Amino acid sequence: MTRAALRGAAGAAALAAVLATTAVPASAHTTLTSASPAKDSTVAAPSQIVLTYADPVRLPRVVVTDGSRKQYQAGSAQAVDNKVTQAVGGTLPNGKYAVGWRVVASDGHPVEGTYTFTVQGSSGAAQPPAPSPVRTNLVSTGDSAGSSGWLWIGLIALVLAAAAGAVAWFRRSPTQD
Fold this sequence. Notes:
By secondary structure, the protein is α+β, with helices and mostly antiparallel strands.
C-alpha cells in the first residue's frame, strides 16, 4: 500500500471514529402534558397532585411547597405508565403553592420542572404567597444520571487524541532502514 493510500485510510478511519462517537442519539425525553391542579390555576384545596406525561415514566418525585417552603406532600409519588400521583398531606390552607417534579423518562434521562397554583376557599389559615418561581431541590445525592455527559466528553477527547496521534504518525519523516 502506498504512503498516500495509508494516509487517506487513516484520515477516513479517524473521521469515521469522530463522527460515530459524536453523533447525538435521538432523544425521547418525555414532557408534562397536563397537571391537576393545573399551572397558574385557582382551586379548592386538592387532596392529590396528578401529573400526566407524554410517555411512561419511572422514579417519580413530587414536592408541594408553600411560600415559606413548608412541604405538604404525603408519602411517595406513584407512577403508573404516564401518570404520577402524589397525595397531599392534610388540607392546604389558602395561598400560593409550588409543585416541583422530577421523573426519569423511558430513555433513561431525568426530566424535571415546577409550576404554581393557588388555593382559595380553604378552611385553613392563609399562607404568604410563594416566591415565583419556586425552585425545589429534587436531585438526590445518589443520582448519577448527569454523569453520562462527562462520559461523552471523555470519549470525544479520546477519539480526537487518537486521530491527532494517527495524523502525527503518518506525517513523521520516513525512516531509512
